């Protein structure tokens, strides 16, 4: 016979990924006496979207990701999203720097490395686009040190592996940004949780699955099952954050808040080609991003990516997109079906009809042969040999579908926070560039859910210490931006050349 225990706490975080880790630590820094319970379905932290093998690890700063700077119908380049992401990543760097300075995190080299970010294209049309993109971004201080070239020899200096054996007569172009980074979000997340577990009032529970949650007067009643013992728990709390990656949508639906109506999800899976030849791995020390295929989701932007994972250098190419009805890598094939409800059927069908090119693209990706995947790799690594690469499964993402003003569905690429009107519940949906911008996303969440405390003098003073640029745009304050970049590079041991 299983027992049921009842507990009360001030904050519940569901999911042990980078978002819950960031929010938990921000809250404990702002209010040290806060009591926090964290529940994770798996047996370790950061095993899903935050794991190094399951995400791009690029330290998304919009330096090289071309999907953040689309070309508009009039031929101009949209820069708004790129600038926002760049500013957001600078906020993350400041927070991580603060944690290292205060010795709350040790050995930053275990989770962040300086790695130049390159964009690389070929063909007259793409070269013209990259040139216009470079010129558009030059108006912003945070992109001032970006370099542009159409010189083959210069590209060879930046990315020799990409040019090795290249015989195409197509015109090429590339941009390079020295402030790029590689981030192991799995290692970072686990380090934050390791620190959180040492703090009074924080409890982290693995192998615990949240089955139900319901608002009862001023408290949320959460039903949790200990998967190891079968014990049932009822947790009462005034505030819940759901940061369960692809699993967040199903929990949002169980919460049954009006703000969550109409939301649906479209799952996209991924795979990498991983290099197994140490000699090839040595030749590449940058991250090179290209242009996505027509209809491809943003997570499928092709890149040849140098990574540091668990102390070893790795080289990945991809991701190759695919389709699965799972919402998590360790999820159920019934996740998609279970997510369909009366309020989101119309938006989901509408989004499907509007995104037929995406559906076609995913079907093509699913049926790709190993030769097809090698052909795609050879566009970026012409000298690639099949025996040097193996296929690995990457993470699972759920793209957000929500209602527009007419009640039809819109497929959103990016992250979205859904908050209850009273601020008692917040849910993070979506994917890239999520992890890289986690600090900014959680600060916005705190502003929505704890508005009075965020305005209070103690919290404001603490936020200024943690994030020196808090409340300011670094792009509008060049001198401050230079000072902060210099300091965070020193503290995080980033050797920028």
UniProtKB/TrEMBL annotation:
Catalytic activity: (S)-malate + a quinone = a quinol + oxaloacetate
Coiled-coil parts of chain: none
Keywords assigned by UniProt, alphabetized: FAD, Flavoprotein, Oxidoreductase, Tricarboxylic acid cycle
Enzyme class: oxidoreductase
Cofactor(s) recorded in Swiss-Prot or TrEMBL: FAD
Pathway membership, UniProt: Carbohydrate metabolism; tricarboxylic acid cycle; oxaloacetate from (S)-malate (quinone route): step 1/1
Known EC number: 1.1.5.4
Any Gene Ontology biological process: tricarboxylic acid cycle
Name by which UniProt lists this protein: Probable malate:quinone oxidoreductase
GO MF annotation terms: (S)-2-hydroxyglutarate dehydrogenase activity; L-malate dehydrogenase (quinone) activity
Family per record: Belongs to the MQO family.
Pfam family, one: Mqo
């Amino acid at each position: 016979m299983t027992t049921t225990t009842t507990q009360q706490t001030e904050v519940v975080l569901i999911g042990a990924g980078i978002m819950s880790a960031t929010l938990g630590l921000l809250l404990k820094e702002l209010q040290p006496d806060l009591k926090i319970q964290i529940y994770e379905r798996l047996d370790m932290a950061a095993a899903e979207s935050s794991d190094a093998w399951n995400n791009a690890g690029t330290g998304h700063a919009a330096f090289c990701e071309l999907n953040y700077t689309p070309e508009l119908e009039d031929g101009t380049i949209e820069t708004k999203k790129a600038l926002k992401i760049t500013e957001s990543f600078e906020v993350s760097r400041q927070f991580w720097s603060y944690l290292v300075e205060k010795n709350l995190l040790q050995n930053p080299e275990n989770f962040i490395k300086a790695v130049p970010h390159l964009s690389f294209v070929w063909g007259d049309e793409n070269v013209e686009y990259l040139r216009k993109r470079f010129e558009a971004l030059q108006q912003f201080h945070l992109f001032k040190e970006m370099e542009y070239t159409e010189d083959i020899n210069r590209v060879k200096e930046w990315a020799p592996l990409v040019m090795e054996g290249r015989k195409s007569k197509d015109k090429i172009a590339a941009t390079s940004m020295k402030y790029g980074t590689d981030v192991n979000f799995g290692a970072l997340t686990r380090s934050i949780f390791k620190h959180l577990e040492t703090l009074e009032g924080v409890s982290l529970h693995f192998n615990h699955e949240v089955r139900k949650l319901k608002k009862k007067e001023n408290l949320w009643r959460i039903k949790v099952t200990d998967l190891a013992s079968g014990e049932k728990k009822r947790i009462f709390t005034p505030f819940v954050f759901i940061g369960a990656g692809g699993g967040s949508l199903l929990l949002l639906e169980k919460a049954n808040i009006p703000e969550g109506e109409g939301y649906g999800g479209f799952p996209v899976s991924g795979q990498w080609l991983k290099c197994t030849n140490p000699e090839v791995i040595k030749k590449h020390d940058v991250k090179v991003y290209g242009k996505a295929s027509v209809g491809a989701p943003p997570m499928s932007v092709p890149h040849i990516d140098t990574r540091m994972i668990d102390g070893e250098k790795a080289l990945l190419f991809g991701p190759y997109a695919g389709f699965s009805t799972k919402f998590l890598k360790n999820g159920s094939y019934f996740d998609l079906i279970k997510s369909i409800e009366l309020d989101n059927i119309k938006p989901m069908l509408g989004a499907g009809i509007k995104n037929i090119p995406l559906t076609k693209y995913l079907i093509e990706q699913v049926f790709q042969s190993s030769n097809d995947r090698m052909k795609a790799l050879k566009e970026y690594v012409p000298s690639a040999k099949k025996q040097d690469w193996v296929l690995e499964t990457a993470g699972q993402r759920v793209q957000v579908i929500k209602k527009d003003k007419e009640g039809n569905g819109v497929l959103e690429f990016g992250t979205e926070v859904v908050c209850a009107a009273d601020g008692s519940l917040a849910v993070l949906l979506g994917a890239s560039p999520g992890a890289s911008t986690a600090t900014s996303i959680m600060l916005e969440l705190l502003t929505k859910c704890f508005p009075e405390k965020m305005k209070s003098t103690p919290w404001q003073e603490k936020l200024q210490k943690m994030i020196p640029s808090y409340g300011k745009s670094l792009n509008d304050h060049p001198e401050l931006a230079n000072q902060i970049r210099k300091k965070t590079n020193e503290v995080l041991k980033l050797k920028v050349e």
